[in-house]
Amino acid sequence: MLPYDSRFVDLRIRKTKIKLLLLLLLVYLGAAAEDVPSWWCGYFGRLCTPTVDDSTPLTFGLNPFRNNFDRLPRTREMAEEKGWAPFGQDNCTAGTWRGFRYVKDNDPAVILLFDTNGYIAGIQLGVYKSELPDDYPPKQITPPWIEDADMNMFLLTAYFIQPDRICGDGRSKEEYRAEGTGTDLIIQTGRNPTSDLLTIPHREADLEGTDWTEGKCFVGMGKHYYWNLREDMDCNEFYPVFLMYNDGRLNVFGWRIMPSSPSSPRFERSTLFSSELTMDPVPNCLYEREDAGLVMHVYLTSGYPLLYNHC
């Protein structure tokens, strides 16, 4: 069994339409969370302990009275049972990525990647070209944006295991039970899915000396990091991946796209206000825009974020 801090035990997308009042309440309560005694997780251990049980739905989020998170299936069998369907060619090596692709409701904003044995291997964000301005994505961030010509879209791709295993032997049942969602976060940074890769450090301390810029703590998410964030940057340089760490370890990441035109309900609309709560510095170019684009948060652990995601 791998140690807890080297595996990702769940896979969830934060749902949209969370009221500003709830976010402010989260910040207020989160400030107190720093002083929560250790017995909290002991008494509510079922919420704080990671699980790899695919059959247990998540029934709470930022607001405990409604489901603000969408727990994603982590086996191909479970995906099909929950209404997910193959997307594009049913071929593990069909494009410039690795894995069998599945979407729900024909929405490519969340594309799940499964290995040859049907276990979760990665995730993609896809946006049809028809929903994007002609000048997006700009050359500064292409890649990691990569064209999928067959589906007439652009993709971002993240893997949770080494990509060269996905279409080969894949993971065994025993490995999946031990590792859960996976053991790594690997961003594809070019058209070759086995060599054009950026492995994200598990430990926050290992970001030192890299181009990841430390942002701010937002309770329920984590300490934010943005790639080469600068006050005088051009908004065309906004890297479409950002990271969040809690207790010094990676357990959340996010996608960011600057156009707000894509219509998927999976996206959260970013604002200047929310950017000021998570970025340091806030690029001047954001003050010249009507909005700050769209984001999506991907949680890699189970439980109620307020209890453990306080940076």
Topology record:
Layout: E1 12-14, H1 20-33, H2 39-43, H3 45-48, E2 69-71, H4 76-81, E3 84-86, E4 100-104, E5 107-114, E6 120-128, E7 146-148, E8 153-159, H5 163-166, H6 173-179, E9 186-188, E10 197-199, E11 212-218, E12 222-227, E13 241-246, E14 249-257, E15 268-269, H7 272-278, E16 294-299, H8 305-308
Antiparallel strand pairs: 1-2, 1-16, 3-4, 4-5, 5-6, 6-8, 7-8, 8-9, 9-10, 11-12, 12-13, 13-14, 14-16, 15-16
Sum this structure up briefly.
The protein is of the alpha+beta class and 311 residues long. Helix content is 16%, strand content 27%. The longest helix has 14 residues.
Written account of the structure:
- 16% of the residues lie in helices and 27% in strands.
- The chain is of the alpha+beta class and 311 residues long.
- The strands form 2 sheets. Strands 1, 2, 11, 12, 13, 14, 15 and 16 form an 8-stranded antiparallel β-sheet that branches. Strands 3, 4, 5, 6, 7, 8, 9 and 10 form an 8-stranded antiparallel β-sheet that branches.
- The longest helix is centred in the N-terminal third of the chain and has 14 residues, at 20-33.
- Mean pLDDT is 83; it is low at 1-5, 17-21 and 26-67.
